[in-house]
Amino acid sequence: MTLDLARDLPAALADRAAAWRLIAEIAAFWGAPLRPEDGCTDAELDAAEARLGLRLPAALCEAHRLVGNRPDLTGNQDTLLPPAELYVDRGCLVYRVENQSCAYWGIPLAALGQDDPPTVVWPDAADPETTPWTARFSVECLAVVLTEPLLDEDAYVDAGEVDPADLVDWTELPQLYEPGVDTRLFARPDALLALQGGFWTAMRAVSEEVLEELCEELPVSWNNY
After folding, report:
1. So which domain of life are we looking at (predicted)?
2. DSSP letters along 133-172, please?
3. Which end of the chain is more exposed for a tag (fewer CB within 10 A), N or C?
């Protein structure tokens, strides 16, 4: 399975149907294609709406029907909440929580009427201000599925510190996040890498051999998972 993110990501960022197709291709690229049972049911989504007393955006429902039961794609580090655990806080519908509850991601309640609403993030603080995260929820889903598999310790992954200038053989992908979010994505035909904070990187390769080659090529202080 080949994956050309540099070619296909721009269309997926502009159209959520294309985003869902690309998410399916990403899952297949990592050797675990999507199956019908990987999604949440309409009954689960209906129950969430009844419990919350609000209408869930179309993009959120579509995403949960697609990958709601795929923690390998959505929950290695932070957790995409299942419909039964969605809740309202700070004027937002909270859909994702950091693994130590240090950050929360949500959709502003005022934007729930949009089919593909924007997302925001805020820290675990007494009175935090929300910060724009992605322009649309479907873009957030792409970001989740592109980054969370890089932290799957059962896969061919590693992490460490890297100088972006050393990523000469990698293609930087279009920005998924809103201005101010310091996360960049880089791809090769056989690997994907996320760079956060200007230097910290998480990387996944398609095989052990490729991972070993990349770890040797890049002058990085690897964690050696």
Report:
1. Bacteria
2. EESSHHHHHHHHHHHGGGG-TTSSEEEEE--GGG-TTSEE
3. N
